[in-house]
Amino acid sequence: MEPTGPRCPESRGQPQQGGLEDDKAFYENLSPQKKPKSPKPQHAITIAVSSRALFRMEEEQKIYTEQGVEAYVKYQLEHEEEPFLPGAAFPFVKALESVNIQLRELFPDSEELFDIVLVTNNHAQVGVRLINSINHYRIAAATIFTPKKDVQVSEKQLRVAFDGDAVLFSDESEQIVKAHGLDKFFEHEKTYENKPLAQGPLKGFLEVLGKLQKKFYTKGLRLECPIRTYLVTARSAASSGARALKTLRSWGLETDEALFLAGAPKGPLLEKIRPHIFFDDQMFHVEGAKEMGTVAAHVPYGVAQKYKLSGQRKVAQDAK
Fold first, then answer.
1. Do 116 and 224 fall within a single domain?
2. Which Pfam families does the UniProt record give (predicted)?
3. Which structural domain, as residue segments, surrounds residue 190?
4. How far apart are CA 304 and CA 312, in angstroms?
5. Domain containing 263 — which CATH number?
6. Which pTM does this prediction carry?
7. Is residue 14 a contact partner of residue 69, using CB atoms and an 8 Å limit?
8. What are the catalytic residues?
């Protein structure tokens, strides 16, 4: 089966050399052996990945920073037959492709697939090397942070981990914590245990993952499903976990595992479950995940961002 191919990289921000016809010629001269079939956008689950997340481009970026755009483009043209090395998001994209392949095998007419879009601000001529790299690896092409050590993750099963508050759910409960402390938070959660939380920014992503999981379940593949989801939250199971689970249930959603850490660091647990990506609204959890080798994405939503900015201003004032 053929993987879903990336849409053409977008080119923004860098000066262009030549007109549209020149750019078109570069792409037309790079026909892969087989043209991948792309899902229709209205049915696809679109995942946008930056070129610097998909591939390692540190050396090229150093040339751009120290020597300028002309030296950068020259270097890229001289090395355009050399594929970039895989970057932080590479295993994530390969796992998405594996899901697509299995969906096509089970549901040949389905258009509910992952459509991976490579987004770049590179010069048009650098797009040649990007396309060559995509074809070399035969891949489909929030801010992602590169882990500080390499950890092997599955290329056959897509594993996605979500924080709860301000990620899957609204920041309602976090506002209580920040304003009134943990005791009031526990009291609030007990009082409103049966009232679902409002949705957060990543609820829709869990929803589409769940929809794809159910397609595999209809074929009796619950245990062998190539998608696995995790709720990884600082909430305590005993004092505030019930509301989180009841909220998911009210939406008709579930995660394969719900992990309540009661304020413990998330990094060590993430190292055990090895997700391809972990979404959290608080940078110290993102940093903790990075330290343990997990690709983590910061979700800039909710009251935690306000407190982060306040803290930064205070540090700046203290430094004066």
1. no
2. 5-nucleotidase
3. 148-304
4. 12
5. 3.40.50.1000
6. 0.69
7. yes
8. 163
